[in-house]
Every structure is written in structure tokens, then in C-alpha cells.
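Justification of resources, computational component.

The compute hours requested in this renewal are based largely on the per-chain cost of generating structure records like the one below. Each record pairs the submitted sequence with a full C-alpha cell output. That output is archived, and it is also reused by downstream analysis tasks.
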Amino acid sequence: MMLKKMIGWLLVLLLVPAVNAAEVPAEISAAIIAKLKAARPEMQFGNVETSPIKGLYLVRINGTQFLYASADGEYILAGEMYQARPGMFVPVQDLAAAKIRKELMDQVSEKDMIIFPAVDQRRAALYVFTDVDCGYCRKLHKETVPELTLAGVEVRYLAFPRAGVGSPSYKKIASAWCADDRQAALTALKNNKAVPENVCDGNPVAAQFELGHKVGVNGTPALVLEDGTLLPGYRPAAELLKMMGLN
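The structure output for this chain reads:
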């Protein structure tokens, strides 16, 4: 299980492009690297890339780490950079990964999701990776989802049985996906009620479980905004609406 999660994150990271690396003038890149090598010759310095802050450049070191440097390489900062967005701070490095997540989520057919539509006009959509035996998933379904749909958010459920494919949780959630009334079956399971076991051929649960690993899900509920931002864990409706700019 852990290996699958690591592979999923590795796939995302490998797909993330360098951030405007080609836009860094050669003389600035050379000056930064020369200054850093003079200070720490034992380190392996890689690409110099632009950052969202003018005059501050991202420099990759030792393969997987990075720091930020001034244009002359004399001053450096180590640590994560965040972008302030409504209701949250988002790591800048995650913004590129979010584009990959969005592309992956856009490839999922609506017919393979269990969708709770907006009550009136749809203003936004929220993807939710869920497990029917997860306490906070049940709380989200009972308390948050009704408020979201009333506020114009379409909630799109995807399956993520934490115990894995073939587990009792998998059989339960697959039975919801295979039911004639998917919404009713999923709601019953989240209310701790039994539904007839019906694991039909060709159900999308295993594929969605793998998709979850690819986009970085390591627990449930896991929420993905339309722009690909990943939000782990339970969130109340008011917080989510603020993040989506709907309140």
C-alpha cells in the first residue's frame, strides 16, 4: 500500500514541469550557480528557475531539494513558499502538481462518479474521494454535502476503499456503484445501513482507487477542487465555500 502511494506521488512529481526555467537569463543562472558553488562546493546544484516573486529564483539542489536565491546568488532562502488564497495557504510547488491533478480528474467520466447535483444553478464542482466505513466521510456526507449542494456546488464522489481492492469496504462501496440508485445506496452505507452486495463486472472502483494514489490521496475524505488543489480531510461547508470563492 505504501509503495503504491509513493509511486503515485512520484508519477505526479515527474510530470510536473519546471517552472519557466527557460525564462531565466543565462547570465543570471550562471551568476547564481557560481556564487552557490563557491559557498558550498560539496552540493550538487541543478536548474535555476523563476519563482512567483520577481527577482527571486528557485535553485534545485541534491536532486530533490531546492532553495531560493537572489539574482546575484548572494542571498538565499530555504523552505517552502506559499501563495495566499481565500481560506488557505497553498505551497507554490503544489500549484504545478495541481495542474496535473486537474488533467487527471477531467479524464474521469461523469457516468463513473456518484454525483449529488447542485440544488439550483451549478456554480462549482467538488471531487470527493470517499470510503463508506470512514467516520469523517460520513460526517461530510451528512453535514457538508447538503449545504454545498444548496449553495450551488455539484459534489462528485469517487471511490477510495482504504483497505484496498477486494476488502469488505471495497465490496460495500462497489455495491453502491453497481446499484440502480447509486445516490440512495451510497447514502444508506454512509448511514451505516446495509445494502445488497452487488459487485458488478466493469465497476470503476479499482480504477478510482488507483487514480486516488496518483493524485496524492493517502486518506479519506480527500477533496479536489476544480483547479486540482488537493484538500486532505474533513472540511465544513463554510470553509469550502470560502475556498471556492462562493461566499
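The chain is about 40% helix and 20% strand. The helical segments are 2-15, 26-39, 92-106, 135-150, 168-177, 182-190, 205-215, 237-243.
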